[in-house]
Amino acid sequence: MQKSKGITIQRHIIEQERLFPQATGDFTGLLWDLSIAAKIISREVNKAGLAEILGLTGGVNIHGEAVKKLDVYANERICKSMEHGGHLCIMASEENEDVVPVPDEFPKGKYVLMFDPLDGSSNIDANVSVGTIFSIYRRKTTGKEATVDDCLRKGTEQVAAGYIVYGSSTMMVYTTGHGVYGFTLDPSIGEFLLSHEKIKIPPKGKIYSINEGNTYVWDEGTRRYVSYLKENDSLTGRPYSLRYIGSLVADFHRNLLYGGIFLYPADYKDPGKPKPKLRLLYEANPLAFIVEQAGGMASTGRERIMDIQATELHQKVPLVIGSKEDVLTYEKFFSQKGK
Ligand code: P6P
After folding, report:
1. Rounded mean pLDDT of 218-225?
2. Rounded distance, CA 293 to CA 51, Å?
């Protein structure tokens, strides 16, 4: 990790804004509001064990308020932090069935925010790292009100994407299409400070991340690929190491920095009806934008994640993401299936 030069995320966002001569500051304000929501969620995540806002408590806190599950809290926090700034015309959350409109009393902006407020939250009771994932698009409809059509997009239309990982430290990683930057929260001053400049994922890794408990429902290509990773290689000797936390943001973040491949293939229990798990709009697209900006790749096994035209808000896709050479090798195995 590079030594922080004391550059705050606010200063970095403003410097990034200078790359867009036509920038109006709207986008800067949006990213800034998001970083504030991240600090608030980080505070709650880090005291969850003490404040009894873990998992399914369903109890009441000392103020007699209904205790919310942490992911419900994070969802409401982001909506409340983002709706009044005047930067957004609509939002969509992995936690909400339908789109989240900006309330009438607030000004509307030209951006669309889509997010997974707290991915991996089922792990939080065990103090496992969790994360918030976000994507930002420009509005495309021209009517009076933004609609769901502003959310059903291709990943290539993203203007920014990022995640916050609440782990041993809280980090915010984002891209606006000009490289990937990481900021580490310094709780003593409440600022995100630049700690990782122009992150690049190694072209080939030695880590694979997959839930091997699902081996029995994988397609033949995935099964053969994972076996290949475990064979002893006469040249390189040690096979790949399996690292799987079961929290997408944490697994992705480690592989982004160290190199490696994360796979969540579809469930082929019913070969005629493959069932993917991860969501295109809230998980796959934002991480795909980041990994491509870092020199990596994100695929379903047969097509680029960011080329997929979303047709439903909660559409799911198989996700294979990480070091370019590893994803390309997987695609070869996946295409050969039963051969
Ligand atoms: P499994 C968490 O529930 C999540 O959505 C991702 O964060 C994680 O990568 C995946 O599901 C884990 O799924 O089936 O291996 O428990």
Report:
1. 96
2. 38
pLDDT of 339 reads 45
* Ranges of H-type helices in the chain: 9-17, 26-51, 70-82, 220-230, 248-258, 285-293, 324-336
Average pLDDT value for residue range 123-151: 93
What is the position in ligand 1's atom list of the atom closest to the CA of 122?
3
The lowest-confidence range among 4-18, 110-124, 161-175, 287-301 is: 4-18
Determine whether the annotation assigns residue 65 to a binding site: no
Residue from 184, 166, 334, 196 nearest 256 by CA: 196
Tokens coding 120? 């991996």
Q: Is 251 annotated as a binding residue?
A: no
Q: If one looks up domain 9-196 in CATH, what number appears? A: 3.30.540.10
The strands making up 111-119's β-sheet, listed across from edge to edge, are 100-101, 88-93, 111-119, 130-138, 158-166, 170-175, 180-186, 191-196
The answer to whether the 9-196 and 207-335 domains have the same CATH topology is: no
- 212: CB partners within 8 A, 6+ apart: 226, 242, 244
User: Domain 207-335 carries which CATH code?
Assistant: 3.40.190.80
How far, in Å, CA of 18 to CA of 24, rounded? 10
Pairwise CA distance, residues 204 & 314, whole Å: 31
Q: Domain ranges for the chain, please list them.
A: 9-196, 207-335
Reference 101, options 286, 303, 22, 93; nearest CA is 93
The DSSP bridge pattern shows strands 88-93 and 111-119 to be parallel
Using alpha carbons only, what angle is made at residue 23 by residues 22 and 26, rounded to the nearest 5 degrees? 145
Q: What is the pLDDT of residues 22-76, one digit of tens each?
A: 667 788 899 999 999 999 999 988 876 555 555 554 655 544 555 458 888 899 9
Atom 3, ligand 1: residue with shortest CA distance: 120
Which protein residues touch ligand 1 with a CB less than 6 Å away? 119-120, 122, 211, 246-248
